[in-house]
Design brief:
Distance between the termini: 69 Å
Strand content: 5-15%
Number of domains: 2
CATH topology of the largest domain: Arc Repressor Mutant, subunit A
Strand order of the largest sheet: 1-2-3
Largest sheet: 3 strands, parallel
Structural class: mainly alpha
CATH architecture of the largest domain: Orthogonal Bundle
Order of helices and strands: HEHEHEHHHHHHHH
Radius of gyration: 23 Å
CATH class of the largest domain: Mainly Alpha
Length: 243
Protein backbone atom coordinates (compact mmCIF):
# COMPACT_ATOMS: atom_id res chain seq x y z
CA UNK A 1 0.00 0.00 0.00
CA UNK A 2 2.65 2.53 1.05
CA UNK A 3 5.08 1.22 -1.56
CA UNK A 4 2.67 2.38 -4.27
CA UNK A 5 3.11 5.90 -2.89
CA UNK A 6 6.88 5.61 -3.45
CA UNK A 7 7.75 5.05 0.19
CA UNK A 8 10.53 2.61 1.01
CA UNK A 9 8.90 0.05 3.31
CA UNK A 10 10.39 -2.66 5.53
CA UNK A 11 8.22 -5.15 7.41
CA UNK A 12 8.66 -7.29 10.51
CA UNK A 13 6.64 -10.27 11.74
CA UNK A 14 6.50 -9.33 15.42
CA UNK A 15 7.41 -6.60 17.87
CA UNK A 16 10.91 -7.82 18.68
CA UNK A 17 11.81 -8.23 15.01
CA UNK A 18 10.52 -4.71 14.35
CA UNK A 19 12.49 -3.27 17.25
CA UNK A 20 15.70 -4.98 16.11
CA UNK A 21 15.16 -3.78 12.52
CA UNK A 22 14.62 -0.21 13.69
CA UNK A 23 17.75 -0.39 15.82
CA UNK A 24 19.85 -1.70 12.93
CA UNK A 25 18.62 0.89 10.42
CA UNK A 26 16.41 3.58 12.01
CA UNK A 27 13.47 4.41 9.72
CA UNK A 28 11.81 7.80 9.31
CA UNK A 29 8.52 6.51 10.78
CA UNK A 30 7.12 3.29 12.24
CA UNK A 31 3.63 1.85 11.72
CA UNK A 32 3.12 -0.48 14.67
CA UNK A 33 0.29 -2.99 15.01
CA UNK A 34 -0.85 -3.29 18.61
CA UNK A 35 -1.76 -6.98 18.29
CA UNK A 36 1.19 -9.08 17.12
CA UNK A 37 2.49 -12.55 18.02
CA UNK A 38 5.18 -12.68 20.67
CA UNK A 39 6.02 -9.11 21.65
CA UNK A 40 3.03 -6.84 20.99
CA UNK A 41 3.12 -3.29 19.68
CA UNK A 42 2.93 -1.63 23.08
CA UNK A 43 5.91 -3.61 24.37
CA UNK A 44 7.88 -2.78 21.22
CA UNK A 45 7.06 0.93 21.62
CA UNK A 46 8.29 0.92 25.22
CA UNK A 47 11.65 -0.43 24.04
CA UNK A 48 11.80 2.01 21.12
CA UNK A 49 11.21 4.98 23.41
CA UNK A 50 13.72 3.74 26.00
CA UNK A 51 16.57 3.57 23.45
CA UNK A 52 18.16 6.90 22.40
CA UNK A 53 18.79 5.54 18.91
CA UNK A 54 15.09 4.92 18.20
CA UNK A 55 13.40 7.35 20.62
CA UNK A 56 12.96 10.20 18.07
CA UNK A 57 11.22 7.99 15.47
CA UNK A 58 7.48 8.80 15.16
CA UNK A 59 5.30 5.77 15.94
CA UNK A 60 1.76 5.38 14.57
CA UNK A 61 -0.27 2.59 16.14
CA UNK A 62 -2.71 0.41 14.19
CA UNK A 63 -5.37 -1.55 16.05
CA UNK A 64 -8.59 -3.45 15.40
CA UNK A 65 -9.76 -2.45 18.89
CA UNK A 66 -10.79 1.19 18.73
CA UNK A 67 -11.07 1.57 22.50
CA UNK A 68 -10.42 4.97 24.11
CA UNK A 69 -8.29 3.44 26.89
CA UNK A 70 -6.09 1.68 24.32
CA UNK A 71 -5.65 4.86 22.27
CA UNK A 72 -4.72 6.84 25.37
CA UNK A 73 -2.25 4.14 26.45
CA UNK A 74 -0.55 4.19 23.06
CA UNK A 75 -0.22 7.96 23.02
CA UNK A 76 0.97 8.06 26.64
CA UNK A 77 3.86 5.69 25.92
CA UNK A 78 5.11 7.82 23.03
CA UNK A 79 2.98 7.12 19.97
CA UNK A 80 2.17 10.16 17.82
CA UNK A 81 -1.07 8.79 16.34
CA UNK A 82 -3.53 5.90 16.48
CA UNK A 83 -5.40 4.46 13.48
CA UNK A 84 -8.31 2.05 13.95
CA UNK A 85 -8.88 -0.94 11.68
CA UNK A 86 -10.42 -1.27 9.18
CA UNK A 87 -8.76 1.88 7.93
CA UNK A 88 -9.03 3.77 4.68
CA UNK A 89 -5.73 3.86 2.75
CA UNK A 90 -6.05 7.58 2.05
CA UNK A 91 -6.27 8.26 5.78
CA UNK A 92 -3.11 6.28 6.47
CA UNK A 93 -1.25 8.07 3.66
CA UNK A 94 -2.33 11.44 5.03
CA UNK A 95 -1.28 10.62 8.59
CA UNK A 96 2.09 9.25 7.47
CA UNK A 97 2.75 12.35 5.36
CA UNK A 98 1.75 14.73 8.14
CA UNK A 99 3.93 13.07 10.76
CA UNK A 100 6.92 12.86 8.43
CA UNK A 101 6.57 16.58 7.79
CA UNK A 102 6.22 17.29 11.49
CA UNK A 103 9.41 15.33 12.06
CA UNK A 104 11.17 17.54 9.51
CA UNK A 105 11.50 14.79 6.92
CA UNK A 106 10.62 14.89 3.22
CA UNK A 107 9.93 11.87 1.08
CA UNK A 108 11.43 13.52 -2.02
CA UNK A 109 14.66 14.64 -0.36
CA UNK A 110 17.43 13.12 1.69
CA UNK A 111 16.67 12.70 5.37
CA UNK A 112 18.96 14.63 7.70
CA UNK A 113 21.65 12.57 9.31
CA UNK A 114 20.60 11.52 12.80
CA UNK A 115 22.70 12.85 15.68
CA UNK A 116 25.28 10.41 16.93
CA UNK A 117 24.01 8.25 19.76
CA UNK A 118 25.59 5.45 21.67
CA UNK A 119 23.37 2.37 21.44
CA UNK A 120 22.38 1.08 24.84
CA UNK A 121 22.81 -2.61 25.38
CA UNK A 122 19.56 -4.61 25.34
CA UNK A 123 19.41 -5.10 29.11
CA UNK A 124 19.85 -1.38 29.72
CA UNK A 125 16.97 -0.63 27.35
CA UNK A 126 14.77 -3.13 29.22
CA UNK A 127 15.69 -1.56 32.57
CA UNK A 128 15.00 1.98 31.33
CA UNK A 129 11.69 0.91 29.80
CA UNK A 130 10.71 -0.79 33.06
CA UNK A 131 11.51 2.35 35.06
CA UNK A 132 9.36 4.46 32.77
CA UNK A 133 6.52 1.93 32.94
CA UNK A 134 6.67 1.92 36.74
CA UNK A 135 6.86 5.72 37.02
CA UNK A 136 3.84 6.11 34.72
CA UNK A 137 1.71 3.53 36.54
CA UNK A 138 2.39 3.96 40.25
CA UNK A 139 -1.31 3.74 41.15
CA UNK A 140 -1.68 0.37 39.43
CA UNK A 141 -1.20 -3.01 41.17
CA UNK A 142 2.10 -3.77 39.44
CA UNK A 143 3.64 -7.24 39.50
CA UNK A 144 6.97 -8.54 38.24
CA UNK A 145 5.18 -10.82 35.77
CA UNK A 146 2.98 -8.00 34.52
CA UNK A 147 5.90 -5.62 33.99
CA UNK A 148 7.89 -8.31 32.16
CA UNK A 149 4.91 -9.12 29.96
CA UNK A 150 4.38 -5.43 29.13
CA UNK A 151 7.99 -5.25 27.92
CA UNK A 152 7.88 -8.47 25.93
CA UNK A 153 10.41 -10.23 28.15
CA UNK A 154 10.43 -12.71 31.04
CA UNK A 155 10.74 -12.18 34.78
CA UNK A 156 14.27 -13.58 35.17
CA UNK A 157 15.73 -11.37 32.45
CA UNK A 158 13.90 -8.31 33.78
CA UNK A 159 15.20 -8.91 37.31
CA UNK A 160 18.77 -9.40 36.11
CA UNK A 161 18.68 -6.35 33.82
CA UNK A 162 17.22 -4.20 36.57
CA UNK A 163 19.81 -5.25 39.16
CA UNK A 164 22.62 -4.64 36.70
CA UNK A 165 21.55 -1.19 35.51
CA UNK A 166 19.43 0.20 38.37
CA UNK A 167 21.41 -1.32 41.22
CA UNK A 168 18.29 -2.60 42.95
CA UNK A 169 15.40 -4.99 42.56
CA UNK A 170 12.29 -4.05 40.62
CA UNK A 171 10.23 -3.88 43.81
CA UNK A 172 12.80 -1.80 45.68
CA UNK A 173 12.64 0.73 42.85
CA UNK A 174 8.83 0.55 42.80
CA UNK A 175 8.61 1.21 46.54
CA UNK A 176 11.02 4.14 46.36
CA UNK A 177 9.21 5.60 43.33
CA UNK A 178 5.90 5.45 45.18
CA UNK A 179 7.35 7.25 48.18
CA UNK A 180 8.94 9.90 45.93
CA UNK A 181 5.57 10.50 44.31
CA UNK A 182 3.96 10.58 47.73
CA UNK A 183 6.41 13.26 48.90
CA UNK A 184 5.65 15.33 45.82
CA UNK A 185 1.87 15.04 46.26
CA UNK A 186 2.05 15.87 49.97
CA UNK A 187 4.11 18.96 49.25
CA UNK A 188 2.46 20.25 46.08
CA UNK A 189 -1.22 19.36 46.50
CA UNK A 190 -3.96 19.50 49.08
CA UNK A 191 -4.88 15.84 48.64
CA UNK A 192 -5.70 13.91 51.80
CA UNK A 193 -3.33 11.17 52.96
CA UNK A 194 -5.90 8.60 51.79
CA UNK A 195 -6.00 10.17 48.31
CA UNK A 196 -2.21 10.27 48.14
CA UNK A 197 -2.14 6.60 49.14
CA UNK A 198 -4.55 5.72 46.32
CA UNK A 199 -2.55 7.65 43.73
CA UNK A 200 0.68 5.93 44.73
CA UNK A 201 -0.62 2.36 44.68
CA UNK A 202 -1.15 1.67 48.39
CA UNK A 203 -4.21 -0.25 49.51
CA UNK A 204 -4.86 2.05 52.47
CA UNK A 205 -3.69 5.23 54.16
CA UNK A 206 -2.28 3.11 57.00
CA UNK A 207 -0.09 1.06 54.64
CA UNK A 208 1.12 4.25 52.96
CA UNK A 209 1.89 5.87 56.31
CA UNK A 210 3.89 2.82 57.45
CA UNK A 211 5.96 2.72 54.24
CA UNK A 212 6.41 6.50 54.25
CA UNK A 213 7.69 6.51 57.82
CA UNK A 214 10.19 3.74 57.03
CA UNK A 215 11.65 5.86 54.21
CA UNK A 216 11.25 9.41 55.52
CA UNK A 217 11.42 8.87 59.27
CA UNK A 218 8.17 10.77 59.86
CA UNK A 219 4.48 10.26 59.14
CA UNK A 220 2.94 11.79 56.00
CA UNK A 221 1.04 14.32 58.13
CA UNK A 222 4.18 15.39 60.00
CA UNK A 223 6.09 15.66 56.71
CA UNK A 224 3.43 17.94 55.24
CA UNK A 225 3.33 20.10 58.37
CA UNK A 226 7.12 20.47 58.33
CA UNK A 227 7.04 21.60 54.70
CA UNK A 228 4.41 24.22 55.49
CA UNK A 229 6.45 25.55 58.41
CA UNK A 230 9.53 25.84 56.19
CA UNK A 231 7.67 27.65 53.41
CA UNK A 232 8.45 31.40 53.28
CA UNK A 233 5.61 33.48 54.64
CA UNK A 234 4.01 35.93 52.20
CA UNK A 235 4.28 39.58 53.24
CA UNK A 236 0.49 39.99 53.12
CA UNK A 237 0.12 37.00 55.47
CA UNK A 238 2.44 38.37 58.20
CA UNK A 239 0.74 39.42 61.45
CA UNK A 240 -0.08 43.09 61.35
CA UNK A 241 1.53 43.42 57.91
CA UNK A 242 0.64 46.27 55.60
CA UNK A 243 0.48 46.03 51.82
Amino acid sequence: MLRRQLYHVRTASDGMAGYQAALAAPPDLILLDVRMPGMDGFAACRLLKANPVTRPIPVIFLSALDEPDERVAGLAMGGVDFVAKPYHPAEVFARVRIHLELAGLRRDGPAPAPPPATPHDPDEVVALAAMRLIDDNLAAPLTLAGIARALGTHEKRLSQAFRRHAGSTVFTYLGEARIRRGRQLLGDTGLSVQQVAEQTGFSSAANFATAFREHAGVTPTAYRQALRQQAPQRPDAAPGGQP
